[in-house]
Amino acid sequence: MQTRDFDSWLATFRESIATYSYYTDFGKVIANANAIRRQLCLMNSLLGSGDKFEAEFESLAHDYPEILQCIPILLASRNKLIPVQTSEAFLVFDFKQPNLDLHHYTEFMRNTGLADLIGRRLVSSLVDYVFGVEAGLDSNARKNRGGHLMEDLVETFLKEAHLSPQKEVYASALESACGLDLSPLSNDGKTEKRFDFVVETKQAVYAIETNFYAGGGSKLNETARSYKTLALESRAIPNFRFVWFTDGQGWWSARNNLRETFDVLPDLYCIHDLEQGVANRIFQ
Length: 284
What we know:
This protein is of the alpha/beta class. The longest helix is centred in the middle third of the chain and has 19 residues, at 142-160. The protein has helices at residues 6-10, 26-35, 37-44, 53-63, 71-74, 102-112, 114-119, 126-139, 142-160, 171-178, 218-234, 255-264, 271-275, 278-282, and strands at residues 81-85, 90-94, 166-170, 194-200, 205-212, 240-247, 268-269. It has a five-stranded mixed beta sheet. It has a two-stranded antiparallel sheet with strand order 1-2. The two termini are 19 Å apart.
């Protein structure tokens, strides 16, 4: 019988679990900027060239065609192939292996505004400018980094409990390794389920899912319904337990669906539960 109070449990959910390294990967930023530092330093010679920019750009690109490689990042693009629909034609600019006449690249600089940016010295250093662009682009990677934060946090608690979790284990591999029949979870083998962690003890095999939702959305309802089904299906499997660690104030918008899963899944826990030592209690 469920003895925990759902509302009290939900009230402990966190706003964020962002770590210091979540915000910007400066190692990546520095490495990316340094990879084209030489080209950027050559382009720096065009700063303040004003009306002479186009002629000087063509001269520089003629002598050092490698400078073209750094142009996409000046537009905050990592693509070396950039398509442009002009009034006359559809062009694809290749900045790694130039495929158009140099005057087309000069027109590209003019029409994208880069000629003004550089020629009028609106920035003092293209190297510094690219550091800023790279930092901005890296912020787009936060979603990917955030997806692993809860996994990393749960793994830390599991190891502190002297457990040896296996990461990213497919149900088929788990069946082979542990002699379990997980067909109820895979629609009789028609689908393949992957668990974030698996912990094996003498008493049972624990399949673990983790996630954190800072914001709401339809995905939360889908997740709650999916894990409710998983919880019910796993009851019929001997020596097998499904465990779900989740958190995040995004769940407030999907609390009713989460409550339904809470009512049928005894092994549903949050970060507060982990801090209270639940990993030492449940994995017997």
